[in-house]
């Protein structure tokens, strides 16, 4: 009897551990890209260019964020796996170009990349190790060509206002998938195009339709500021 009980107990412990592991996993990623002009003229953030100079007038990566289908998300999943720049030395020049940090004080990106890896990347380490995480994100950015999609539809970063649905349609036309647009406000209180979210399957390989969108809203006409 005793041994039957201990088998049962072991099974229960194993089952609970399995549930714990599954619940720490994730369902899909948000690929989040920011428009530097909107980060820089927002009423909330001050902006500092990297020491290597002003980034190109293009969308930059903010991050690749593991998420759950119910809209919640895991964060800071493994303090034993800190950011280690030497693991991505072959990617640094592309990171500086495509994933620049615009926050102050001025930096070359390392603190931004550390934050993104430790908060988000560690939550998908079962699928993508550190090198894969950054390489995959860079590849996804190249695949989405946001600015090109917008410009092909006559939507340019010139300080003019465009309809939110035209912006969405242009990105859908270019990428094949419906984006979610996050706005912030300029110093005069105008709603402007700040970040674009697209969804990526759990392997990090394919864009997908978003299982759930984040919360928040933009005006129906939003500004696309210069940078
Ligand atoms: P905010 O509150 O400014 O929208 O977001 C602050 C930070 O929380 C983001 O930069 C990101 O790290 C995290 N965050 C916000 N919304 C989401 C989300 O829907 N999914 C994930 N994975 N992270 C999010
Ligand atoms: P989140 O938690 O929002 O993913 O990460 C944003 C954090 O990264 C903030 O602490 C912010 O100060 C820092 N950060 C550094 N550079 C940038 C940047 O260029 N854009 C944004 N949105 N955050 C940045």
UniProtKB/TrEMBL annotation:
InterPro entries: Ribonuclease_T2_eukaryotic, RNase_T2-like, RNase_T2-like_sf, RNase_T2_His_AS_1, RNase_T2_His_AS_2
GO biological process terms held by the UniProt record: RNA catabolic process
Family: Belongs to the RNase T2 family.
Described function: May remobilize phosphate, particularly when cells senesce or when phosphate becomes limiting.
Residue numbers annotated as active site: 62, 116, 120
Gene: LOC110428289
Signal peptide: 1-23
Protein name stated in the entry: Ribonuclease 1
Highest taxon listed in the record's lineage: Eukaryota
One Pfam family per UniProt: Ribonuclease_T2
Gene Ontology MF annotations: hydrolase activity; ribonuclease T2 activity; RNA binding
UniProt keywords, alphabetically: Disulfide bond, Endonuclease, Hydrolase, Lyase, Nuclease, Signal
Originating species: Herrania umbratica
Keyword Phosphoprotein: no
A Gene Ontology term for the protein's cellular component: extracellular region
């Amino acid at each position: 009897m005793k041994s039957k009980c201990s088998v049962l107990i072991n099974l229960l412990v194993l089952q609970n551990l399995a549930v714990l592991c599954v619940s720490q996993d994730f369902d899909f990623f948000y690929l989040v890209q920011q428009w530097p002009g909107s980060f820089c003229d927002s009423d909330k953030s001050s902006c500092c260019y990297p020491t290597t100079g002003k980034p190109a007038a293009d969308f930059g990566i903010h991050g690749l964020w593991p998420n759950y289908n119910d809209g919640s998300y895991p964060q800071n999943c493994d303090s034993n796996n800190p950011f280690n720049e030497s693991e991505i030395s072959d990617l640094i020049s592309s990171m500086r170009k495509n994933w620049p940090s615009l926050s102050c004080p001025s930096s070359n990106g390392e603190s931004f990349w550390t934050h993104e890896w430790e908060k988000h990347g560690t939550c998908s380490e079962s699928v993508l190790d550190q090198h894969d995480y950054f390489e995959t994100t860079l590849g996804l950015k190249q695949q989405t060509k946001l600015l090109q999609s917008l410009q092909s539809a006559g939507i340019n970063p010139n300080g003019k206002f465009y309809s939110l649905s035209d912006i969405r349609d242009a990105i859908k036309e270019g990428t094949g998938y419906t984006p979610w647009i996050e706005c912030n406000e300029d110093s005069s209180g105008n709603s402007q195009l700040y970040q674009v979210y697209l969804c990526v399957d759990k392997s990090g390989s394919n864009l997908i339709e978003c299982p759930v969108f984040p919360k928040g809203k933009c005006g129906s006409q939003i500004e696309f500021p210069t940078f």
